[in-house]
Amino acid sequence: MSIHEATDDLRHLLNRGYRKSYALTFVCNHYQLQKEDRHFLARTVFSEEEASSIRQKKVHLERIQGQDIAIDGYNVLISTEAVLTGDALICDDSVVRDIKGIFGKYTLTDLTHRALQEIFAVLTSHSPRTATFYFDQQVSHSGDLCSLVRTHFPCTITKHVDLVLAQLNLITATSDSILIRKLDHFIDIPFEILLSKPL
Q1: CATH code for 59-196?
Q2: Residues with Cβ < 8 Å from 153, sequence gap 6 or more?
Q3: Radius of gyration of the chain, Cα coordinates, nearest whole angstrom
Q4: Measured by CB atoms within 10 angstroms of the end CB, which terminus of the chain is less buried, N or C?
């Protein structure tokens, strides 16, 4: 199947030092892949060097006890929903990511509430001093989500979530590889939820 061959080829090019954007374009054009496949490859395939760097920044949830942490709201929520629906994957860097891709739009459903309860349960069981959620102002339903979150944890809406989280540089719950490069440490809440699910 071409997606498996494309994965191997992209990983090989990244390990040879090619820039991801160029390598991704070359591989997708070569195998005539669709937009969804390109998104899948971009989120799941990393060079060995980058994957190792990301793994080194990942900390166990026990580390957040008594600490101030930040949560990349939509990122963690959507990834957790993907875990619950079987649309998540452990990527080359051992981080769990959704494989569907939701950009700039979000709809509140029963799944939203299920995912939030899972996230709240993980946080509560590991006792951070504070855990603040950050949601993108430009994405639909951010206000409604913050209202739901504030019944359990502080929540902020901002135009530039990634910038704010990078500047704070707290232990941050996220799977965003671009943001992780700017952080000292991160946690992977959807990964913990995935591990807790029955096979």
Answers
A1: 3.40.50.1010
A2: 71, 120, 123, 131, 132, 133
A3: 17
A4: C
Identify any residues that bridge with 156 across adjacent strands, giving them in sequence order.
134
The label of the residue with tokens 């946080």 reads 123
Inter-residue contact 190 to 121 (CB < 8 Å): no
**pTM attached to this predicted model:** 0.93
Gap between the Cα atoms of 192 and 173, Å rounded: 11
Question: Which tokens go with 157?
Answer: 């809406």
Q: Phi-psi region for residue 118, left (φ > 0), alpha (ψ -120 to 50) or beta?
A: alpha
Q: Is the pLDDT of residue 105 over 80?
A: no
Give start and end residues of each alpha helix (H) in the chain.
2-15, 20-30, 35-44, 48-57, 73-85, 110-126, 142-149, 161-168, 177-182, 189-196
Q: Which residues contact 49 (CB under 8 A, 6 or more apart)?
A: 15
- Unique residue bearing structure tokens 């719950």: 173
Residues 6+ apart with CB under 8 A from 112: 77, 81, 145, 148
CA 152, 125, 93, 40 torsion: positive or negative? negative
